[in-house]
Amino acid sequence: MNMKRFGLLVAVPLALLVGCGEADELKTTATDTEEVAEAEASAAEESSTEETDVQESELGTNKIYMKNKALTITETMGPIQFAIDKVQTSRLQVNEVYRDSFDGAEEVTVVAMNVIAENTIDDAISFYPDQGTIVTNTGEQVEADLFFSDDVGGEFLGKVKKEGNVLFFVKAKPEELTEVKFFTSGPSNEAFERVAEERYEFTINVTK
Questions:
Q1: pLDDT digits (tens, 9 = 90+) for 129-179
Q2: Which residues pair with 90 in a beta bridge?
Q3: How far is CA 111 from CA 53, 61, 162, 168, 178, in A?
Q4: How crowded is the C-beta side of 56, counted as CA atoms within 13 Å?
Q5: What pTM, to 2 d.p., does this model score?
Q6: What's the chain look like in SS3?
Q7: How far apart are alpha carbons 202 and 180 in whole angstroms?
Q8: Structural contact between residues 55 and 62, judged by C-beta atoms closer than 8 angstroms
Q9: Which of 128, 183, 188, 193 is the most exposed place for a label (fewest CB within 10 A)?
Q10: C-alpha to C-alpha distance for 131 and 145, rounded to whole angstroms
């Protein structure tokens, strides 16, 4: 079981955080105009090619289709400040020995989003964005994969901030996806009382 988790994490590092700030680092280390221009050109070249990144592991071959590292989805859910700041889609060709984990499928599409949740009060709050659901424009309704997603839900014991990737596996090919709607239940207090809306819905554009 642990091998499978390790394998997917290698195969699907999501590249959501890879490359963030690299262009800024290059610019801050450049000392003259020519170096700055070279740094900007290098960053532009990287940006134009990163969508075709291919990641190999024992689990299979994962080819990134699109990514958006500049989402600005934010929501105040009672005491919880919630945000989705990155999204990525990719196509995973699953090696035969791991296909049982994907109902025998030879290929699956990975929809990954980076979420940030912060409790702004001292009281304990329960919130589970890593148990959310997406509905795709192709008509699929899929729950988040808890096993492969980061631990970004559960109890927030006081002023705690959690950030990580939530993964969904869908049948539609990445190029068929134009948008996904993400649904998550609102947070609750220690008495299991809802402290915000019952459910929240966010529409995310995943068109390349």
A1: 999 999 999 999 999 999 889 999 999 999 999 999 999 999 999 999 999
A2: 64, 110
A3: 15, 15, 20, 5, 12
A4: 0
A5: 0.76
A6: CHHHHHHHHHHCCCCCCCCCCHHHHHHHHCCCHHHHHHHHHHHHHHHHHHHHCEEEECCEEEEEEEEECCCCEEEEECCEEEEEEEEEEEEEEECHHHHHHHCCCCEEEEEEEEEEEEECCCCEEEECHHHCEEEECCCCEEECCCCCCCCCCEEEECCCEEEEEEEEEECCCHHHCCEEEEEEECCECCCCCECCCCEEEEEEECCC
A7: 8
A8: yes
A9: 193
A10: 8
Our measurement of the distance from residue 7's CA atom to the centroid of its chain's CA atoms, rounded to an integer in Å, reads 17
- Residue appearing with tokens 């096993």: 147
Residues in the chain: 208
